[in-house]
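hey can u run this one w/ magnesium ion bound, need the structure tokens asap thx
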Amino acid sequence: MKTECLQANRQTLERAAALLRAGEVVAFPTETVYGLGACAEQAPAVARIFAAKNRPADNPLIVHVAHMEQVPALAKKWTGLADKLARAFWPGPLSLIVPAADAIQAIVTAGLDSVAIRMPSHPVALELIRLAGPLAAPSANTSGRPSPVQAAHVMEDMCGKIPLVLDGGTCTVGVESTVVDVRAAVPVILRPGDIIQEQIAAVCGGCEVAKGVFEPVAGKAASPGMLHRHYAPHGQATLVEASAHMVRTICDLYDQAEQAGLRTVILSSRRHAEAYGARQQIVCDAQGDMNHGLFTALREADARGYERILLEGRPRSGRGMAYMNRALRAAGFHTAE
Ligand code: AMP
Ligand code: MG
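ok here u go:
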């Protein structure tokens, strides 16, 4: 299949919507990462998402809406917490897990009785959903690879597999949405993102974090996505925990790897860049914070053929929670201190 990558505008949006209504899969920009969308009510179209991504069938998709009138057909119950959080943070990088409506396609929820719903804030995403209806859309990467934050990243993974990529520039957030289960009395973060624990707690009076956020889970997970390999670069990655001696540890690991003949790179932050001296680096926060640049840096490390990748750690709270959740998975939970 020929894959077109076109600047998002009125004409290409209408073309994308027509493809979606006809049961095709289209990649589009959101404020978090690029999504791979299909009409949520068309099971065969949603099946094409799983095929294009090589996504495990047990990993459910987030359904994207453009206005609140689209929610009742998807959610059996809109809980008080869902209402509070949607009012506070929608449109925005927050996915809410609520009981699923009976009519929802089982392939979307991977057979679960709950569904993840999000209203993105990106104007291209919103307009596409207005034209085509609610879209089931995971990140537009091959499963296991870093999520795409530029149309070129989507093309790396999806060229030949889908008919159209809408190019809306670089995603401003750079990590996927915060996923929060709002079915019980206290909200639980299943995947941290740009909306942080403290912001959710301020609205709801409290907020917990699921166990699998910072550690590998086996068997039954609060969120199936926790079970799968994620964001993995080709090189062997190690995450060095944040501490007073982090830079020294990274330099030592770097020098050992170089001596062993491995092409090595540090995914660094601006404030430490000078301390690494002449060692190879890709600065993650060159255009924003570490969350914003991590996925691009992982893809760049692969493109440049690095065999050993050293990641800086951050505190596991606040905005660092999303970064550490992704960086730990990118490193296959391989850490050093
Ligand atoms: P992605 O679409 O690639 O951003 O991944 C969506 C994430 O949301 C995955 O980690 C899923 O496991 C998670 N998710 C989607 N629906 C549910 C649900 N009903 N319950 C728990 N987690 C979900
Ligand atoms: Mg994903």
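The chain has a mean pLDDT of 97. anyway lmk if its weird
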